[in-house]
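C-alpha cells incoming
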C-alpha cells in the first residue's frame, strides 16, 4: 500500500500511544494523524504510519550517535517491523547506513535460548553462535536522507503539536 503512492500527501502520524520516549520523553503526548484532507485515503494513512516508524528510527539513531560518540559500524534489525521492507529501506536511506535483516526475526526468543545453551555448554563460545546467524537481506541506502528532509521536518512539527496533550496523572 505504501509503495503505491509517491508520498503521504502531507499526512503525518505521531506514534505515541504511551507517550513519547527518548529523546523527547513526554508521557503526556498523544497519538495523532495530522494533515488529513478530503483526498486522504487509507493508503495515505498506512504510508504515514510506516514513515513515522522510519522517522522515529532516524531520531533515535541521531540521538545514539550524539550520546555515545562511538562510530556505529554494524546495524542489525529484528522484531516484527523488520518484516516491512518499506520501513527498512526508508530507515536505511534516512540514516545512510546498511541494515542487516536476519532470516529469523524473533531475536528475543533466540537470544534467551542461546544464552541458556551457552550456560549449559551446548555451544562452546560466542564465536560459534555468530556462525549461526544468517542474513536474509541487507538494506543499502538508495536515496539521500536530504530527499526526506522536508517530510521529516513536518513530522517533527506534528510530533511537537502532539506533545503535552494530556494532563499529568
Amino acid at each position: 500500500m505504501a509503495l503505491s503512492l509517491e508520498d503521504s500527501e502531507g499526512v503525518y502520524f505521531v506514534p505515541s500511544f504511551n507517550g513519547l520516549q527518548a529523546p523527547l520523553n513526554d508521557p503526556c503526548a498523544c497519538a495523532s494523524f495530522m494533515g488529513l484532507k478530503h483526498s486522504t485515503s487509507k493508503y495515505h494513512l498506512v504510508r504515514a504510519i510506516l514513515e513515522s516508524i522510519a522517522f522515529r528510527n532516524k531520531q533515535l539513531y541521531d540521538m545514539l550517535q550524539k550520546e555515545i560518540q562511538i562510530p556505529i559500524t554494524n546495524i542489525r534489525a529484528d522484531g516484527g517491523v523488520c518484516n516491512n521492507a518499506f520501513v527498512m529501506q526508508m530507515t536505511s536511506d534516512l540514516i545512510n547506513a546498511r541494515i542487516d535483516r536476519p532470516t529469523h526475526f524473533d531475536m528475543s526468543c533466540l537470544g534467551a535460548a542461546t544464552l541458556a545453551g551457552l550456560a549449559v555448554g551446548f555451544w562452546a563460545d560466542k564465536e560459534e553462535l555468530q556462525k549461526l546467524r544468517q542474513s536474509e537481506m541487507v538494506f543499502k541506502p538508495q536515496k539521500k536522507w536530504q530527499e526526506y528532509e522536508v517530510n521529516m521536518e513536518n513530522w517533527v512539527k506534528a510530533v511537537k503539536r502532539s506533545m503535552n496533550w494530556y494532563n499529568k496523572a
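note: Helices lie at 42-68, 85-95, 107-119, 126-130, 149-162.
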